[in-house]
## 1
Amino acid sequence: MEWGESTRSNRIDGHGVRSGGRPPDAPAEPASRNGASAASANGGNGSRRQAVILAGGRGSRLAPYTTVLPKPLLPIGDQPILDLVIRQLARSGFVDITLAVGYLAHLIEAVLQDGSQHGVSLRYRKETKPLGTVGPLASMDHLDDTFLMMNGDILTTLDYTDLYRAHVTSGNALTVATHVRTVTSEYGVLELGGGDGATLRVTGFREKPAIDHRVSMGVYVVDRRVREHIPAGQPFNLPDLVWRLLEAGERVGSYSYDGFWLDVGRFDDYAQAIERYDEIKDALLAPGGEPGASAAPEPAVGAGAGPARRPAR
């Protein structure tokens, strides 16, 4: 989409949110593996899957760029990040999209308008105060079935359709797409043994060790019942939600993906995205098609796994 291109103007629907025109239906898909109906596997609202994009943050890690542009509108190649994300979602059948906006929301609306240029319908929910990563969901009563939720600054070749189907098949309340990130220490690390007077015995030394962590990609599939666990009008973040679900005995699952993924909200990742865009742009619009990429659901935690224990703070 060109930055100055215009589409028909937004309108206000009966819920007081801005929404777009009627997009074409997404292709029908087969039933899920556990015998669920095609309507359930594809989204309960016919074939119009729902998605929520979290695009309200200030993007302070990317200052000073985000002083004049909201983070989701920062350019990748010849288009804003968020424009690319919406095109990816549309290709996966997510055509009923809600944007949770806040900081510089008017610029996001001016660029994306009603979404009709991408064959999707866009709604805008504007925060009057910061509500955290999942707090805005509490007021989204139009989310009437399982939906995908993601940050608006994610660049990935993840297959959103496969993630959605894996969630529906699993019976999870929440499924988190995860990726391995290697964190390298800036320091040499001592391995210590028992004490010897005023000192501890050194038993080993590792120079700047690298440790793998499985981290959230900022992409989730959420059952509609999860909204019952989110307090209205209060800041509420994803870690709070995970702990509340676990304490309620709900299933929370991890969907492992080892393909291309960048969190463009980090300066290093944004620089890498700009540098590698020409190399990856075709794969970005064919999710899951990256050579060597693989994805697999992992065992859920929650129901049947014993009581969850929140770490001490």
## 2
Amino acid sequence: MLDLIRTTVVKRWWLWVLAVLLIIGQVFVFLPEILGSDLPQTIGILFRILIVTLVLALALAYWRQVAWTAVDMAHDRWWLLELAVVLLVGVLVLLRPDPFQRIVVFLSDGIVVTIGITMISFVLVAFVGLIGGMARLAKNPLIHGAASIYVEVIRGIPLLVQLLFLYFAFPQILDAIGGVLLPIVPPVGQWFVDLRPDPFWTAVAGITICYGAYMTEIFRAGIQSISKGQMEAARSLGMSYIQAMRHVILPQAIRVILPPVGNEFVTLLKDSSLVSVVAVADMTRRGREFMASTYLSLETWSMVALLYLIMTLFAARIVSYIEKRSAYVN
């Protein structure tokens, strides 16, 4: 991925111009929100702007490949189910704009938040899983033991409980730390006392910690599925352990773990609805707010369910396509 970005930036200078224009346009759109936010929220907004810019720039740079990929994916008949659900939502909005159109408009910002939390969390989960998987296979007993304890403890606590702990209980821990440091280092102690986690990043942290434990086991199993002779052969050629992992073991392991990783992504997308309990205005929370103001329970939750179904079906089809392409390459 990094090689793709590096090659694209070097050979296609106009992407710099496009990226700058995209960033300026998004900053202009989100300027009122940026000015009214504190530092963590501003960093989160800027991070989302950079992610959107990167995706759009790469899609425009490789639009031919994107088009051929879309044509290839069209042969999957399960896209008909996705199309049927989209058409159903469209029919409901056209035939009964009140309340279904109102619901969709009301949920639109929640959809953006849901997708943002899912994408950011999944990137962090994959990174934690990679580091944790390698730590689980480490020969150092301290590293192996710490990784094993992390996996066993986190997998034994429900995600909802972890989110509630981070949002409601963790600030009390920060207050206690600040109280201890306040007489010793007043500025640092006061910083801990005043620190209040942002709901969005608290949700991302909770999902990352929870799903990172499951992803750790997926990476561990994938790495162990590769024959030990592969590592021995790479080391005999003069490669270091890191080089052997990067160039020999991990490329093969990734093809093995693609199906479970894809399933984790779809599950993460659905479980992102739990972040509504920590004041994150995702699609579920927005649906609850609309229902509370209109008392239209059936219409509201039917539309929320259909919108979640559209996103999960789309994600599942993308994962299925990547798996088939990987099998074809193999």
## 3
Amino acid sequence: MQYSEKIKQGLYLLGIFACSLIFAELALRFAGAVYGKIPRLAKLNKQEYTIVCLGDSFTYGWGLDRDKTYPAQLEKMIKADTGMFPEVSVINLGVPGTNSSQVLQTIQGLLKQAIKPDMVIILVGANDAWNFARSNISGVAHMPALEAAIVKGKIFFSEFRIYKLIQTIMLNIKGRTFELDRDVFDQIAESGPIDRQLINELVSFNLKRIIKLLRKENIEVVLHSYPRGGPLEQGFYQDVSAQFGVIYVDHYQDFREKIRDNKMTEVFLYDNSHPNETGCAIIAKNIFTAIKGGIRK
């Protein structure tokens, strides 16, 4: 009888735990629906030159006010140069934690809308080593059976918001113990379950599909690098850009000087990877300079 009561208590606690997880999942999905809405391009003025910035937390502007992100500062720079466009709108569609497969899907959705962007600026790849939500990796890379099973499991669980929340919390806790003289995302990729070469193949596959889709619609494409290089091979973005003849912007040289002179707090937030307001100003200025003479008006 006593043993039966313990089983009942265990099942009761398990039920409460399961209900708590379901409630948390629904709450996170509701919050995402309310606060995570992507602006629809169809609402834009057709007379405006529209630039869409896609990517992860570096594009979103993690830890910054909305007017301090690099897309917001880029818009101000372009509007201040009266010779570029009479009307311009720079839209920030960065989503923290997003991977390159998700950006590809976002592009596919954008191109179905009535009004398409004139230019798309892309920075992605830092999260592909740990975020497998809707990832194309299974169809891109050939992996051993065990590694493939792990990846498929991660892809499945990554569809749940509560799983991604726990992952994000763990990464932030883990990030505080990483070596600050190295990029946090580079170290995450190094300690991840997937070989770095596979991540390069995945991001390359998605970026090439993205560029081909945008080029088909006669949309300008700009690729740029992470301030500290990121987890991909050196020269990765430059090679993809050269292959398709799209604009490439390298920020690493500017930030490397601050790293070399031990002045990281001038351009980075506490994690020494995400740019602060000044760092975003450098990114915006570099992109502004690169695109000024290369836009088809």
